[in-house]
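Module 6 notes. Inverse folding takes a fixed backbone as the condition and produces residue identities as the prediction. Think of it as a translation problem where the source language is geometry and the target language is the twenty amino acids. Below is one complete input and output pair. Work through it position by position during the lab.
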């Protein structure tokens, strides 16, 4: 194993009825005035929000709800919510939803604790030195935000979608009841499966060797997600499948699948620009860009891609490059099996002009480089985007 540091302080409360412990956990972390963030109508329609609210009030906690978080969470919403939370004198932020809600909760927590700092300043490089505690009640297995040190925001004025990594982003607890996910649509499940896979694959494709156990964990997680993703797509009320996906989502983005390695996240950066400009679903942006990226970079370490093909897809015949290409093809075939896009036309944005491609490349790499496996500059980004431009 290579050297690493690892800390994941998030307390996990997993299983049927886990949400009934929400108030108890908030109180254990010193919360008394709870600002509750949620997204659209699903948390209301499912009755989850009402159960959470009742649980808080019965425990003697003060609560204020604030709904309307959108996918690709918006900076302007986080700014307004932080102002409302500050006026409420919130001392605890609770996100009830998926990655977008939880990421927004993290931004609001930073905003309340630092009222003299614009939230976007943190996403632009200013160090976070204090924040409020955040709890998460997870409603979809996908982003892994409930146990990660990352959060993403979209600045609508600039069209820029950026991630922020800081230990202040770690929720103090995550409530995870797989039954809550039974109301998800097929598309939501598929996007979640893709996101979980990509969080692992963005850590798996690395040139750093000598981390056998980390490789085994990543490979087992990917196989498990693929197998249970298929089951969940066929029966979204299969508790075992949904529970496996939910736990894999948290493990994948908690940094456990990267120990001794590094994050690449080139595909995320390429995909973020699609979400920032066209407001496409995060999971769909990832499946759109992965194949184009993989075909461009696999020759940098064909044995790594060949191992991926063998361990994940059972490809045992052919030469190294042939197996590497087979693994890429089979991954894209799985994405299509889930009705996920693998190019711009399938994504629904159509064939892009040169100007649009240049804009995406400028936003992705600018005058620098992104990623580590094969650092991507502007010209490289143009080539990868053009490969997906079908």
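Target side of the pair, the amino acids:
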């Amino acid at each position: 194993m290579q050297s690493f540091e690892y800390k994941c302080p998030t307390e996990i409360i997993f299983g049927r009825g886990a949400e009934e412990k929400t108030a108890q956990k908030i109180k254990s972390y010193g919360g008394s005035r709870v600002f509750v963030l949620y997204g659209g109508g699903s948390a209301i329609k499912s009755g989850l929000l009402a159960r959470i609210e009742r649980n808080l009030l019965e425990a003697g906690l003060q609560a204020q709800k604030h709904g309307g978080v959108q996918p690709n969470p918006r900076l302007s919403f986080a700014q307004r919510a932080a102002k409302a939370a500050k006026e409420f004198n919130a001392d605890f932020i609770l996100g009830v939803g998926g990655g977008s809600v939880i990421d927004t909760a993290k931004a609001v927590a930073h905003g309340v604790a630092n009222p003299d700092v614009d939230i976007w300043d943190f996403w632009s490089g200013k160090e976070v030195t204090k924040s409020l505690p955040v709890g998460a009640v997870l409603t979809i297995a996908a982003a892994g935000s409930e146990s990660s040190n990352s959060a993403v925001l979209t600045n609508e004025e600039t069209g820029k979608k950026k991630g922020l990594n800081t230990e202040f982003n770690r929720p103090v607890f995550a409530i995870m009841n797989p039954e809550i996910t039974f109301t998800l649509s097929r598309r939501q499940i598929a996007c979640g499966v893709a996101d979980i896979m990509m969080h692992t694959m963005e850590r798996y494709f690395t040139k750093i060797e000598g981390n056998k156990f980390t490789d085994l964990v990543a490979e087992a997680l990917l196989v498990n997600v693929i197998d249970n993703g298929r089951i969940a797509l066929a029966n979204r009320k299969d508790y075992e499948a949904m529970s496996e996906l939910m736990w894999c989502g948290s493990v994948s983005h908690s940094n456990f699948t990267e120990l001794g390695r590094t994050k690449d996240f080139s595909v995320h950066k390429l995909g973020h620009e699609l979400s920032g400009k066209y407001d496409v679903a995060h999971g769909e942006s990832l499946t759109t860009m992965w194949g184009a990226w993989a075909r461009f970079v696999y020759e940098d370490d064909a044995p790594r891609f060949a191992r991926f093909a063998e361990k994940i897809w059972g490809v045992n015949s052919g030469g190294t490059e042939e197996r590497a290409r087979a693994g890429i093809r089979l991954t894209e075939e799985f994405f299509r099996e889930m009705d996920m896009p693998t190019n711009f036309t399938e994504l629904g944005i159509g064939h892009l002009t040169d100007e649009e491609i240049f804009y995406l490349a400028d936003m992705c790499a600018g005058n620098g480089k992104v990623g580590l496996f094969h650092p991507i500059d502007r010209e490289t980004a143009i080539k990868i985007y053009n490969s997906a431009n079908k």
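Reference fact for the lab report: The chain has a mean pLDDT of 96.
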